[in-house]
Amino acid sequence: SGQTSQRDFLPGLSVGPRTRAQAGTLLRPTIWAEPGSVMPWGTSVTIWCQGSLEAQEYHLYKEGESRVWDRQKLMELRDKTKFSITHMTDVHAGRYHCYYFSPTGWSEPSDPLELVVVTGGKPSLSALPSPVVTSGGNVTLQCASWMGFHRFVLMKEGESQPSWTLVSQSVPTGGTKALFSVGPMTPSVTWTFRCYGYYSNTPQVWSDPSDPLELLVSGVSGKPTLLTQQGPVVTSGQSLTLQCHSGIGYHRFPLSREGAPDPPRQLGRQPQAGLSGADFPLGPVRPSHRGRYTSYGHRQSPQSKGPTATHLPFLSLGQLPYIPSLSVQPRRMVAPGENVTLLCQSQSSVDTFLLSKEGTANPPLRRRSKSRAGQHQAEFSMSPVTSAHRGTYRCYGSSRTSAYLLSQPSDPLELLVSGESSDSRDYMVENLTRMGVAVLILVVLGILLLEAQHSQRRTPDTPPSHVAELWACIPGAQRRL
Protein backbone atom coordinates (compact mmCIF):
# COMPACT_ATOMS: atom_id res chain seq x y z
CA SER A 1 0.00 0.00 0.00
CA GLY A 2 3.00 2.28 0.64
CA GLN A 3 4.05 1.88 -2.96
CA THR A 4 0.57 2.61 -4.18
CA SER A 5 0.40 5.76 -2.10
CA GLN A 6 3.75 6.88 -3.52
CA ARG A 7 2.40 6.42 -7.04
CA ASP A 8 -0.51 8.73 -6.37
CA PHE A 9 1.92 11.68 -6.46
CA LEU A 10 4.98 10.59 -8.42
CA PRO A 11 4.79 10.26 -12.19
CA GLY A 12 6.72 7.80 -14.27
CA LEU A 13 10.33 7.68 -13.27
CA SER A 14 10.07 8.57 -9.60
CA VAL A 15 10.41 5.06 -8.19
CA GLY A 16 12.58 3.80 -5.38
CA PRO A 17 15.68 1.60 -5.99
CA ARG A 18 13.93 -1.57 -4.77
CA THR A 19 10.84 -1.01 -6.91
CA ARG A 20 12.87 -0.29 -10.07
CA ALA A 21 14.85 -3.51 -9.61
CA GLN A 22 11.67 -5.52 -9.25
CA ALA A 23 10.16 -3.84 -12.33
CA GLY A 24 12.94 -5.21 -14.51
CA THR A 25 11.25 -8.63 -14.43
CA LEU A 26 7.85 -7.28 -15.55
CA LEU A 27 6.56 -6.76 -19.06
CA ARG A 28 6.52 -3.15 -20.22
CA PRO A 29 2.85 -2.15 -20.81
CA THR A 30 1.47 -1.03 -24.15
CA ILE A 31 -0.82 1.99 -24.48
CA TRP A 32 -3.12 2.99 -27.36
CA ALA A 33 -6.34 4.90 -28.05
CA GLU A 34 -9.53 3.83 -29.80
CA PRO A 35 -10.90 4.83 -32.22
CA GLY A 36 -7.76 6.95 -32.62
CA SER A 37 -5.39 9.39 -30.98
CA VAL A 38 -6.58 12.43 -32.99
CA MET A 39 -10.18 13.09 -31.97
CA PRO A 40 -12.72 15.86 -32.69
CA TRP A 41 -13.93 18.02 -29.83
CA GLY A 42 -16.82 16.44 -27.91
CA THR A 43 -16.30 12.87 -29.08
CA SER A 44 -15.56 9.88 -26.86
CA VAL A 45 -12.26 8.01 -26.78
CA THR A 46 -10.96 4.95 -24.92
CA ILE A 47 -7.35 4.60 -23.74
CA TRP A 48 -6.22 0.99 -23.39
CA CYS A 49 -3.30 -0.23 -21.29
CA GLN A 50 -2.11 -3.82 -21.71
CA GLY A 51 0.40 -5.36 -19.32
CA SER A 52 0.55 -8.80 -17.64
CA LEU A 53 -1.91 -11.35 -16.28
CA GLU A 54 -0.23 -10.71 -12.90
CA ALA A 55 -1.41 -7.08 -12.93
CA GLN A 56 -3.68 -6.09 -10.05
CA GLU A 57 -4.05 -2.40 -10.71
CA TYR A 58 -3.43 0.00 -13.65
CA HIS A 59 -2.59 3.70 -13.34
CA LEU A 60 -2.86 6.33 -16.08
CA TYR A 61 -0.63 9.42 -15.87
CA LYS A 62 -0.75 12.59 -17.92
CA GLU A 63 2.48 14.55 -18.41
CA GLY A 64 2.44 17.81 -16.49
CA GLU A 65 0.12 16.45 -13.80
CA SER A 66 1.51 15.55 -10.34
CA ARG A 67 -1.27 13.13 -9.44
CA VAL A 68 -2.61 9.97 -11.00
CA TRP A 69 -5.00 10.89 -13.83
CA ASP A 70 -7.01 7.69 -13.44
CA ARG A 71 -6.71 4.19 -11.94
CA GLN A 72 -8.39 0.83 -12.48
CA LYS A 73 -8.31 -2.08 -10.00
CA LEU A 74 -8.84 -5.46 -11.64
CA MET A 75 -11.59 -7.61 -10.16
CA GLU A 76 -10.82 -10.56 -12.45
CA LEU A 77 -7.80 -12.09 -14.16
CA ARG A 78 -6.98 -10.21 -17.35
CA ASP A 79 -3.96 -8.53 -18.91
CA LYS A 80 -5.43 -5.15 -19.93
CA THR A 81 -7.87 -2.44 -18.88
CA LYS A 82 -9.40 0.70 -20.34
CA PHE A 83 -9.78 4.34 -19.31
CA SER A 84 -12.76 6.12 -20.87
CA ILE A 85 -13.12 9.77 -21.88
CA THR A 86 -16.75 10.45 -22.75
CA HIS A 87 -16.41 14.08 -23.93
CA MET A 88 -13.08 15.04 -25.46
CA THR A 89 -11.91 18.63 -24.80
CA ASP A 90 -8.61 20.50 -24.61
CA VAL A 91 -8.37 19.43 -20.95
CA HIS A 92 -7.92 15.82 -22.08
CA ALA A 93 -5.35 16.63 -24.77
CA GLY A 94 -1.79 15.72 -23.82
CA ARG A 95 0.80 12.93 -23.47
CA TYR A 96 -0.13 9.87 -21.43
CA HIS A 97 1.75 6.91 -19.87
CA CYS A 98 0.37 3.89 -18.08
CA TYR A 99 1.79 1.49 -15.45
CA TYR A 100 0.53 -1.56 -13.68
CA PHE A 101 1.12 -2.97 -10.21
CA SER A 102 1.71 -6.68 -9.56
CA PRO A 103 2.82 -8.78 -6.55
CA THR A 104 6.42 -8.16 -7.60
CA GLY A 105 6.06 -4.36 -7.82
CA TRP A 106 5.45 -1.62 -10.40
CA SER A 107 6.17 -2.00 -14.10
CA GLU A 108 8.16 0.44 -16.18
CA PRO A 109 6.08 3.18 -17.85
CA SER A 110 4.63 2.57 -21.28
CA ASP A 111 5.77 4.55 -24.28
CA PRO A 112 3.95 7.89 -24.46
CA LEU A 113 0.54 8.24 -26.10
CA GLU A 114 -0.12 11.68 -27.57
CA LEU A 115 -3.83 12.39 -27.42
CA VAL A 116 -4.89 15.25 -29.67
CA VAL A 117 -8.19 17.16 -29.77
CA VAL A 118 -9.35 18.75 -33.01
CA THR A 119 -11.10 22.10 -32.54
CA GLY A 120 -11.67 23.93 -35.86
CA GLY A 121 -10.04 26.18 -38.44
CA LYS A 122 -9.46 23.78 -41.34
CA PRO A 123 -6.28 24.41 -43.39
CA SER A 124 -5.96 23.71 -47.11
CA LEU A 125 -3.76 21.00 -48.62
CA SER A 126 -2.57 21.07 -52.24
CA ALA A 127 0.06 19.38 -54.39
CA LEU A 128 2.71 21.34 -56.28
CA PRO A 129 2.79 21.35 -59.21
CA SER A 130 0.14 18.61 -59.57
CA PRO A 131 -1.36 15.68 -57.60
CA VAL A 132 -0.31 13.39 -60.47
CA VAL A 133 3.27 12.16 -60.01
CA THR A 134 5.34 9.81 -62.13
CA SER A 135 6.45 6.54 -60.55
CA GLY A 136 9.66 7.13 -58.57
CA GLY A 137 9.20 10.90 -58.49
CA ASN A 138 8.71 13.35 -55.61
CA VAL A 139 6.00 15.93 -55.00
CA THR A 140 5.65 18.95 -52.69
CA LEU A 141 2.52 19.19 -50.53
CA GLN A 142 1.57 22.66 -49.26
CA CYS A 143 -0.47 23.02 -46.08
CA ALA A 144 -1.66 26.58 -45.55
CA SER A 145 -4.04 28.55 -43.31
CA TRP A 146 -5.08 32.13 -42.62
CA MET A 147 -5.12 31.41 -38.86
CA GLY A 148 -1.36 31.81 -38.41
CA PHE A 149 -0.59 28.34 -37.01
CA HIS A 150 2.99 27.90 -35.72
CA ARG A 151 3.33 24.31 -36.91
CA PHE A 152 1.69 22.03 -39.45
CA VAL A 153 1.29 18.26 -39.25
CA LEU A 154 0.95 15.98 -42.29
CA MET A 155 -0.83 12.66 -41.72
CA LYS A 156 -0.87 9.76 -44.17
CA GLU A 157 -4.09 7.76 -44.35
CA GLY A 158 -3.81 4.47 -42.46
CA GLU A 159 -1.11 5.69 -40.07
CA SER A 160 -1.90 6.68 -36.48
CA GLN A 161 1.18 8.85 -35.92
CA PRO A 162 2.08 12.09 -37.73
CA SER A 163 4.08 11.47 -40.87
CA TRP A 164 5.78 14.88 -40.80
CA THR A 165 5.71 17.98 -38.56
CA LEU A 166 7.16 21.28 -39.79
CA VAL A 167 7.55 24.78 -38.43
CA SER A 168 5.39 27.14 -40.51
CA GLN A 169 6.60 30.05 -42.62
CA SER A 170 4.78 33.32 -43.13
CA VAL A 171 2.88 34.05 -46.34
CA PRO A 172 3.21 37.64 -47.68
CA THR A 173 -0.55 37.87 -48.26
CA GLY A 174 -1.27 36.73 -44.70
CA GLY A 175 -1.36 33.47 -42.78
CA THR A 176 1.24 30.70 -42.68
CA LYS A 177 2.15 27.59 -44.64
CA ALA A 178 4.50 24.61 -44.63
CA LEU A 179 5.94 22.68 -47.59
CA PHE A 180 6.31 18.90 -47.23
CA SER A 181 8.42 16.93 -49.70
CA VAL A 182 6.89 13.47 -50.30
CA GLY A 183 8.43 10.58 -52.23
CA PRO A 184 9.71 8.65 -53.97
CA MET A 185 6.26 7.61 -55.21
CA THR A 186 5.45 3.96 -55.83
CA PRO A 187 2.22 2.59 -57.39
CA SER A 188 1.95 -0.20 -54.79
CA VAL A 189 1.05 2.25 -51.99
CA THR A 190 -2.05 4.40 -51.41
CA TRP A 191 -0.96 8.05 -51.09
CA THR A 192 -3.79 9.93 -49.35
CA PHE A 193 -2.94 12.78 -46.94
CA ARG A 194 -4.55 15.30 -44.58
CA CYS A 195 -2.86 18.13 -42.73
CA TYR A 196 -3.49 19.98 -39.45
CA GLY A 197 -2.21 23.17 -37.83
CA TYR A 198 -1.53 24.03 -34.19
CA TYR A 199 0.01 26.71 -31.97
CA SER A 200 3.25 26.14 -30.04
CA ASN A 201 1.67 26.73 -26.62
CA THR A 202 -0.99 24.02 -27.23
CA PRO A 203 0.79 21.25 -29.19
CA GLN A 204 -2.01 18.72 -28.61
CA VAL A 205 -4.84 21.04 -29.69
CA TRP A 206 -5.02 20.85 -33.48
CA SER A 207 -7.15 22.41 -36.16
CA ASP A 208 -9.73 20.43 -38.09
CA PRO A 209 -8.15 18.25 -40.77
CA SER A 210 -7.84 19.53 -44.31
CA ASP A 211 -9.83 17.84 -47.03
CA PRO A 212 -8.12 14.59 -48.09
CA LEU A 213 -5.67 14.82 -50.95
CA GLU A 214 -4.94 11.69 -52.96
CA LEU A 215 -1.76 11.55 -55.00
CA LEU A 216 -1.90 9.55 -58.23
CA VAL A 217 1.08 7.63 -59.61
CA SER A 218 1.08 7.74 -63.40
CA GLY A 219 2.80 5.85 -66.16
CA VAL A 220 2.31 2.18 -65.24
CA SER A 221 -0.71 1.18 -67.32
CA GLY A 222 -2.58 1.86 -70.54
CA LYS A 223 -4.00 5.29 -71.35
CA PRO A 224 -7.72 5.93 -71.28
CA THR A 225 -9.30 8.19 -73.88
CA LEU A 226 -10.76 11.60 -73.06
CA LEU A 227 -13.23 13.13 -75.49
CA THR A 228 -16.41 15.18 -75.86
CA GLN A 229 -19.37 14.71 -78.16
CA GLN A 230 -19.12 18.39 -79.11
CA GLY A 231 -15.39 18.33 -79.84
CA PRO A 232 -12.77 20.40 -78.03
CA VAL A 233 -14.17 23.78 -79.18
CA VAL A 234 -17.40 24.78 -77.44
CA THR A 235 -19.55 27.88 -77.14
CA SER A 236 -20.09 29.75 -73.88
CA GLY A 237 -23.35 28.54 -72.30
CA GLN A 238 -23.31 25.24 -74.18
CA SER A 239 -23.85 22.12 -72.06
CA LEU A 240 -20.70 20.01 -71.96
CA THR A 241 -19.83 16.50 -70.78
CA LEU A 242 -16.30 15.09 -70.77
CA GLN A 243 -16.10 11.32 -71.36
CA CYS A 244 -13.19 9.18 -70.15
CA HIS A 245 -13.19 5.63 -71.58
CA SER A 246 -10.81 2.66 -71.62
CA GLY A 247 -10.76 -0.98 -72.70
CA ILE A 248 -8.86 -1.73 -69.47
CA GLY A 249 -10.97 -2.53 -66.40
CA TYR A 250 -10.23 0.57 -64.33
CA HIS A 251 -12.43 1.15 -61.27
CA ARG A 252 -12.16 4.94 -61.04
CA PHE A 253 -11.48 7.75 -63.49
CA PRO A 254 -10.05 10.89 -61.87
CA LEU A 255 -10.27 14.08 -63.96
CA SER A 256 -8.07 17.12 -63.34
CA ARG A 257 -7.62 20.54 -64.94
CA GLU A 258 -4.11 21.84 -65.51
CA GLY A 259 -3.15 24.52 -63.00
CA ALA A 260 -6.25 24.05 -60.84
CA PRO A 261 -5.49 23.78 -57.09
CA ASP A 262 -8.48 21.49 -56.51
CA PRO A 263 -7.90 17.73 -56.25
CA PRO A 264 -9.04 15.63 -59.24
CA ARG A 265 -12.74 14.87 -59.54
CA GLN A 266 -13.37 11.14 -59.11
CA LEU A 267 -16.08 8.98 -60.64
CA GLY A 268 -16.70 5.28 -60.42
CA ARG A 269 -16.72 2.98 -63.42
CA GLN A 270 -19.75 3.09 -65.71
CA PRO A 271 -19.25 0.09 -68.03
CA GLN A 272 -20.81 0.18 -71.47
CA ALA A 273 -20.34 -2.09 -74.49
CA GLY A 274 -17.22 -3.82 -73.17
CA LEU A 275 -15.56 -0.55 -72.11
CA SER A 276 -15.04 0.98 -68.69
CA GLY A 277 -15.46 4.70 -68.38
CA ALA A 278 -17.05 7.67 -66.69
CA ASP A 279 -18.87 10.81 -67.83
CA PHE A 280 -18.13 14.17 -66.21
CA PRO A 281 -21.01 16.63 -66.79
CA LEU A 282 -19.63 20.17 -66.49
CA GLY A 283 -22.95 21.88 -67.16
CA PRO A 284 -23.20 25.15 -69.10
CA VAL A 285 -19.77 26.29 -70.26
CA ARG A 286 -18.30 29.30 -68.43
CA PRO A 287 -14.97 31.06 -68.90
CA SER A 288 -13.71 29.35 -65.72
CA HIS A 289 -14.00 25.96 -67.47
CA ARG A 290 -11.41 26.74 -70.13
CA GLY A 291 -8.08 24.95 -69.91
CA ARG A 292 -6.33 21.63 -70.45
CA TYR A 293 -7.98 18.56 -68.92
CA THR A 294 -6.42 15.21 -68.08
CA SER A 295 -8.12 11.91 -67.31
CA TYR A 296 -6.64 8.84 -65.65
CA GLY A 297 -7.49 5.20 -65.06
CA HIS A 298 -7.28 3.89 -61.50
CA ARG A 299 -7.57 0.31 -60.26
CA GLN A 300 -8.57 -0.83 -56.77
CA SER A 301 -5.76 -3.36 -56.50
CA PRO A 302 -2.66 -1.62 -55.04
CA GLN A 303 -0.39 -3.78 -57.19
CA SER A 304 -2.03 -2.56 -60.39
CA LYS A 305 -2.75 1.00 -59.35
CA GLY A 306 -1.36 3.64 -61.64
CA PRO A 307 -3.24 6.15 -63.78
CA THR A 308 -1.92 7.24 -67.13
CA ALA A 309 -2.79 10.61 -68.52
CA THR A 310 -4.32 11.61 -71.81
CA HIS A 311 -4.82 15.31 -72.48
CA LEU A 312 -7.67 17.29 -74.01
CA PRO A 313 -7.38 21.05 -74.56
CA PHE A 314 -10.77 22.60 -73.85
CA LEU A 315 -11.31 25.84 -75.74
CA SER A 316 -13.97 28.44 -74.96
CA LEU A 317 -15.50 29.89 -78.11
CA GLY A 318 -16.65 33.41 -78.93
CA GLN A 319 -14.75 35.33 -76.26
CA LEU A 320 -12.59 37.45 -78.64
CA PRO A 321 -14.49 40.12 -80.62
CA TYR A 322 -13.61 39.34 -84.25
CA ILE A 323 -14.38 36.78 -86.96
CA PRO A 324 -11.57 35.48 -89.21
CA SER A 325 -12.08 34.37 -92.81
CA LEU A 326 -11.17 30.98 -94.29
CA SER A 327 -10.31 30.33 -97.94
CA VAL A 328 -8.77 27.49 -99.97
CA GLN A 329 -6.07 27.39 -102.63
CA PRO A 330 -6.17 26.36 -105.46
CA ARG A 331 -9.90 25.32 -105.27
CA ARG A 332 -12.49 23.54 -103.11
CA MET A 333 -12.74 20.48 -105.41
CA VAL A 334 -9.42 18.66 -105.74
CA ALA A 335 -8.25 15.23 -106.85
CA PRO A 336 -6.36 12.80 -104.61
CA GLY A 337 -2.63 13.50 -104.54
CA GLU A 338 -2.97 17.24 -105.14
CA ASN A 339 -1.67 19.89 -102.74
CA VAL A 340 -4.17 22.12 -100.91
CA THR A 341 -3.68 25.09 -98.57
CA LEU A 342 -6.35 26.50 -96.27
CA LEU A 343 -5.71 30.18 -95.50
CA CYS A 344 -7.08 31.76 -92.29
CA GLN A 345 -6.97 35.58 -92.18
CA SER A 346 -8.04 38.45 -89.94
CA GLN A 347 -7.64 42.22 -89.95
CA SER A 348 -7.54 42.14 -86.13
CA SER A 349 -4.34 41.33 -84.26
CA VAL A 350 -4.08 37.54 -83.83
CA ASP A 351 -1.27 35.57 -82.19
CA THR A 352 -2.34 32.07 -83.24
CA PHE A 353 -4.86 30.64 -85.70
CA LEU A 354 -6.59 27.32 -85.08
CA LEU A 355 -8.18 25.08 -87.71
CA SER A 356 -10.83 22.54 -86.71
CA LYS A 357 -12.62 19.88 -88.76
CA GLU A 358 -16.31 19.20 -88.15
CA GLY A 359 -17.16 15.82 -86.64
CA THR A 360 -13.74 14.99 -85.18
CA ALA A 361 -12.65 15.01 -81.53
CA ASN A 362 -9.01 15.69 -82.43
CA PRO A 363 -7.54 18.96 -81.10
CA PRO A 364 -7.50 21.83 -83.64
CA LEU A 365 -4.35 22.44 -85.66
CA ARG A 366 -2.40 25.53 -84.54
CA ARG A 367 -0.27 27.93 -86.58
CA ARG A 368 1.46 31.14 -85.49
CA SER A 369 0.07 34.24 -87.18
CA LYS A 370 2.14 36.15 -89.75
CA SER A 371 1.51 39.71 -90.83
CA ARG A 372 1.27 40.26 -94.60
CA ALA A 373 -0.22 43.20 -96.54
CA GLY A 374 -2.03 44.52 -93.47
CA GLN A 375 -3.56 41.12 -92.71
CA HIS A 376 -2.78 38.58 -90.02
CA GLN A 377 -2.84 35.11 -91.52
CA ALA A 378 -1.73 31.50 -91.23
CA GLU A 379 -1.50 28.73 -93.83
CA PHE A 380 -2.57 25.13 -93.18
CA SER A 381 -1.09 22.88 -95.87
CA MET A 382 -2.52 19.47 -96.78
CA SER A 383 -0.37 17.44 -99.12
CA PRO A 384 -0.92 15.05 -100.66
CA VAL A 385 -4.70 15.18 -100.31
CA THR A 386 -6.59 11.95 -99.57
CA SER A 387 -10.26 11.15 -98.94
CA ALA A 388 -9.55 11.58 -95.20
CA HIS A 389 -9.18 15.34 -95.81
CA ARG A 390 -12.74 15.61 -97.16
CA GLY A 391 -14.96 17.55 -94.74
CA THR A 392 -16.06 20.92 -93.36
CA TYR A 393 -13.49 23.25 -91.78
CA ARG A 394 -13.61 26.39 -89.63
CA CYS A 395 -10.83 28.57 -88.28
CA TYR A 396 -10.47 30.67 -85.11
CA GLY A 397 -8.09 33.22 -83.67
CA SER A 398 -6.54 33.26 -80.18
CA SER A 399 -4.31 35.58 -78.14
CA ARG A 400 -1.04 34.88 -76.37
CA THR A 401 -2.38 35.98 -72.99
CA SER A 402 -5.45 33.68 -73.04
CA ALA A 403 -4.55 30.57 -75.00
CA TYR A 404 -7.90 28.89 -74.32
CA LEU A 405 -10.08 31.85 -75.38
CA LEU A 406 -11.05 31.91 -79.07
CA SER A 407 -12.70 34.27 -81.50
CA GLN A 408 -15.98 33.53 -83.23
CA PRO A 409 -15.55 30.88 -85.97
CA SER A 410 -15.08 31.68 -89.63
CA ASP A 411 -17.77 30.69 -92.09
CA PRO A 412 -17.59 26.94 -92.81
CA LEU A 413 -15.56 25.77 -95.80
CA GLU A 414 -16.25 22.36 -97.34
CA LEU A 415 -13.32 20.59 -98.99
CA LEU A 416 -14.30 18.08 -101.70
CA VAL A 417 -12.03 15.28 -102.93
CA SER A 418 -12.90 13.77 -106.32
CA GLY A 419 -11.97 10.35 -107.74
CA GLU A 420 -12.76 8.40 -104.57
CA SER A 421 -15.76 7.16 -102.67
CA SER A 422 -18.78 8.41 -104.71
CA ASP A 423 -16.87 8.23 -108.07
CA SER A 424 -15.62 4.74 -107.30
CA ARG A 425 -19.19 3.67 -106.49
CA ASP A 426 -20.31 4.98 -109.95
CA TYR A 427 -17.55 2.98 -111.64
CA MET A 428 -18.61 -0.13 -109.74
CA VAL A 429 -22.24 0.23 -110.89
CA GLU A 430 -21.11 0.73 -114.49
CA ASN A 431 -18.88 -2.36 -114.38
CA LEU A 432 -21.67 -4.47 -112.89
CA THR A 433 -24.01 -3.31 -115.68
CA ARG A 434 -21.50 -4.30 -118.35
CA MET A 435 -20.98 -7.69 -116.75
CA GLY A 436 -24.77 -8.24 -116.67
CA VAL A 437 -25.11 -7.43 -120.37
CA ALA A 438 -22.25 -9.81 -121.20
CA VAL A 439 -23.90 -12.63 -119.24
CA LEU A 440 -27.22 -12.00 -121.04
CA ILE A 441 -25.52 -12.20 -124.43
CA LEU A 442 -23.87 -15.49 -123.48
CA VAL A 443 -27.25 -16.92 -122.43
CA VAL A 444 -28.86 -15.91 -125.75
CA LEU A 445 -25.99 -17.42 -127.74
CA GLY A 446 -26.33 -20.64 -125.77
CA ILE A 447 -30.03 -20.86 -126.61
CA LEU A 448 -29.36 -20.30 -130.30
CA LEU A 449 -26.68 -23.00 -130.28
CA LEU A 450 -29.09 -25.52 -128.78
CA GLU A 451 -31.74 -24.63 -131.37
CA ALA A 452 -29.23 -25.11 -134.15
CA GLN A 453 -28.32 -28.59 -132.89
CA HIS A 454 -31.99 -29.49 -132.64
CA SER A 455 -32.71 -28.32 -136.21
CA GLN A 456 -30.14 -30.75 -137.66
CA ARG A 457 -32.43 -33.66 -136.78
CA ARG A 458 -35.29 -32.19 -138.91
CA THR A 459 -35.81 -32.37 -142.73
CA PRO A 460 -33.32 -30.13 -144.42
CA ASP A 461 -36.10 -28.56 -146.54
CA THR A 462 -38.19 -27.70 -143.50
CA PRO A 463 -36.89 -24.70 -141.74
CA PRO A 464 -37.35 -24.29 -137.97
CA SER A 465 -40.68 -22.74 -137.05
CA HIS A 466 -39.20 -19.56 -135.73
CA VAL A 467 -37.13 -19.16 -138.91
CA ALA A 468 -40.24 -19.67 -141.02
CA GLU A 469 -42.10 -17.14 -139.02
CA LEU A 470 -39.24 -14.72 -139.52
CA TRP A 471 -39.20 -15.29 -143.25
CA ALA A 472 -42.92 -14.86 -143.49
CA CYS A 473 -42.39 -11.29 -142.52
CA ILE A 474 -39.91 -10.69 -145.35
CA PRO A 475 -41.43 -9.64 -148.74
CA GLY A 476 -40.81 -12.33 -151.39
CA ALA A 477 -39.67 -14.93 -148.92
CA GLN A 478 -42.64 -17.26 -149.58
CA ARG A 479 -41.96 -17.23 -153.33
CA ARG A 480 -38.35 -18.21 -152.75
CA LEU A 481 -39.47 -21.08 -150.51
Automatic annotation (TrEMBL):
Q: Give the record's keywords alphabetically.
A: Cell membrane, Disulfide bond, Glycoprotein, Immunoglobulin domain, Membrane, Repeat, Signal, Transmembrane, Transmembrane helix
Molecular-function GO terms, alphabetical: inhibitory MHC class I receptor activity
Where, by residue number, does the polypeptide cross the bilayer? Answer: 432-450
Q: How does it sit in the membrane?
A: Single-pass membrane protein
Query: Start and end of every Ig-like domain?
Result: 324-407
Q: Can you list the GO cellular component terms from the UniProt entry? A: plasma membrane
Chain residue ranges for the region called Disordered: 255-288, 359-381
Tell me the leader sequence span.
none
One GO term of the biological process aspect = immune response-regulating signaling pathway
Q: Which domain of life is it from?
A: Eukaryota
> What is the first-listed, main subcellular location in coarse terms?
membrane
Where does it reside?
Cell membrane
What is the protein name for this chain? Ig-like domain-containing protein
User: What organism is this sequence from?
Assistant: Neovison vison
